[in-house]
Design brief:
Length: about 130
């Protein structure tokens, strides 16, 4: 596991954030996941007039990764606005854990860069995960 955040991954999450569709909350989010294959997959939150139908940025990035056939996340960056440090919602913690070992790092970013780094195991300890169903 590298010590330093992956600069490309962080830059990708910050860059795509501008395309987030968040007219209701005004809270734009960009996410980038690096697959074990080395590729970066991005997503943004996409809200909906029927509020519960909105999707998170992490979900979009995971969908892009799955579409490409990748099944393992190596590292994650999530970018929100300046202010309180963004952290993936409960549902996204579970979605990320599906494709991540517990030690995979999540970099919480704002437009200025990384503000906090934790692991998915920190965010979702004692997870119910794919290994339970083997
Ligand atoms: N949101 C994300 O896309 N990812 C996160 O990690 C936190 C929250 C979105 C959902 C909703 O569109 C908006 O941010 C406010 O909750």
């Amino acid at each position: 596991m590298p010590d330093k955040p992956d600069d490309d991954l962080v830059a990708a999450a910050i860059a795509v954030r501008g395309n987030a569709y968040a007219p209701y909350s005004g809270y734009q989010v960009g996410a980038a996941v690096r697959g074990r294959n080395g590729k970066v997959y991005t997503g943004v939150n996409v809200e909906n007039a029927a509020y519960p139908e909105g999707t998170c940025a992490e979900a979009g990035a995971i969908a892009a990764m799955a579409l490409d056939g990748e099944r393992e996340i190596a590292e994650v960056a999530v970018a929100g606005p300046a202010g309180a440090i963004i952290t993936p919602c409960g549902g996204c913690r579970q979605k990320l854990r599906e494709f991540s070992r517990p030690e995979v790092r999540i970099h919480s970013c704002d437009p200025g860069g990384v503000r906090q780094t934790v692991t998915i195991g920190d965010l979702l300890p004692h997870a119910f995960a794919p290994e339970h169903l083997k």
